Amino acid sequence: MRAASAQRMEDAATGIAIRNVSHSYGPAGHGVLALDRISLDIGDCEFHCLLGPSGCGKSTLLYLLGGFIPVQSGQIVTPKGVVTGPGPDRSIVFQNFALFPWKTVRDNVLYGLKKAGFAADERARRAQEYIDLVHLTGFEDSYPSQLSGGMQQRAAIARTLAVDPRILLMDEPFGALDAQTRRVMQEELRAIWRRSRKTVVFVTHDVQEAVFLADRISIMSARPGRIEHIIDVDLPKDRGEEILEDSQFIQLSEQIWRLVREQAIAATRGAH
Amino acid sequence: MTMSHVGPATKGAAPAPAPRRHIAPRTVDTLVQVSVIVALAAFWEFGARFGALNPFLLPPLSTVLVRLWTDLLSGVVLVDLGLTLYRALSGFLIAALIGIPLGIVMSRSKAVRWFFDPLISVGFPMPKIAFLPIFILWFDIYDTSKIIMVAFSCFFPIVAATYAGTTALDKWPIWSARSFGAREHEILWEVHLPMALPQILTGLQVALPVGMITTVVTEMLMGGRGIGGAMITAGRFADSVGVFAGIVEVIILGFVVVKSLEYLRARLLIWHPETRR
């Protein structure tokens, strides 16, 4: 145990370094450039939002971070080293939940814990702990098809949080939720992050969501995706619903909204 | 002590109005379907009995059922049913044991796909029974050639469905498994197969009646025991009651076998939205 926490301390020394990463889809040579020389440092335990118009390649950047698609040029370095493929140190919540439909909520959560090598009784304890955390108590034996979209997404979040990844990647995880559930989930995620000390990279196109959640926000340009601005969110660490009426919050949201709007307009006009 | 009295009493009182509302549509459905079969059976029985239909060409249902009953008591029916079932299920299982793994390998290996895809494209629509004379020449006139014939005809729907089911799988569950650190061979068992299971089962459900048909047809063509053979023998002796007894046996056997596989599907796909309709 002591060795593990010592290891963690060492890991904590670094965050994520994205160095000159470009990515294109389609045939090599004449594909579509999705990401153009992205460089970005994300600090340890930082909540970082990637914000941009649809098609700006923010999801692509997240999949590259996750190791789901190979890095074509440039390099991504995490505390565990250079990213070459998916790994349990970087867990992801996908936009469409990606639960295993043939497993119950509990078995979905247990799957990741088993792969992470937890002992059987520890697996059961943690699974229950995280199911309770996302308020799915009583639905442990339900299959995803029996749950609403919001409940499925909470199950997916429990599954991902249970393995306690150092880096949490989230691809518009609340996009499919109704406005109320969305608000509740945002508050809970921020609270969980405050307690658990993780690095979070969160993709969204919702300005308010980004300002509410993030420490820093990268605003990406329309295709080919570049990072145009990096904004520090200078708001209190503990954020509740009341912050939405805070003048600083509103001012910052408007400022960011104008920057995103420029990119969206540029996108509709076509490049240059 | 007193509780045991309360239990049945409330049970008897409470559900009485509820099922009338909830189960009624399905019960009505079943009743209508059963009554169609009963009406047909009654038309058969009375049509034959009162001379509207020639009793030699169409013997009354009751006569057929009496024959079935005596054959059942003497054990003849059980031997024929058992043989037909044995041939159909053996061939079906062999086809599944070859077809499912081959379908999976085809979806994962280009070389295997290149080799088998044209063979399956040609074989799928081909009337497989045409191979029977060759199988008789190559094997025997007993069980082997019949079982191989059945396996051969069941193989194509199974391999095609498995290939289709394991190709173009939804990538998200696979990516999730990878992000939890699952290895590729684990993903095959833990993700690919459960995801393809509905389509593999559909392939099996298409293949099973094909296997039953092929069994009865090979038995008819080759003679000997088994339902098909018994029916042909009865036909040669102008025993129309025997022929119709065979038809009733085939109907019952087919129904039971197909329903069993449907039941298995519902059990295996308990997680699937289709099961909770």
UniProtKB/TrEMBL annotation, chain B:
CDD domains: TM_PBP2. SUPFAM superfamilies: MetI-like. The chain crosses the membrane at residues 31-52, 89-107, 119-141, 147-166, 187-217, 237-258. GO terms for cellular component: plasma membrane. It holds the Pfam family BPD_transp_1. The keyword Zinc-finger does not apply. It comes from the Bacteria. Keywords: Cell membrane, Membrane, Transmembrane, Transmembrane helix, Transport. It is found in: Cell membrane. Residues 81-262 form the ABC transmembrane type-1 domain. It is a multi-pass membrane protein. GO terms for biological process: transmembrane transport. Residues 1-20 are annotated as: Disordered. Belongs to the binding-protein-dependent transport system permease family. PANTHER family: ABC TRANSPORTER PERMEASE PROTEIN MJ0413-RELATED, ALKANE SULFONATE ABC TRANSPORTER-RELATED, MEMBRANE SUBUNIT. This is Taurine ABC transporter permease.
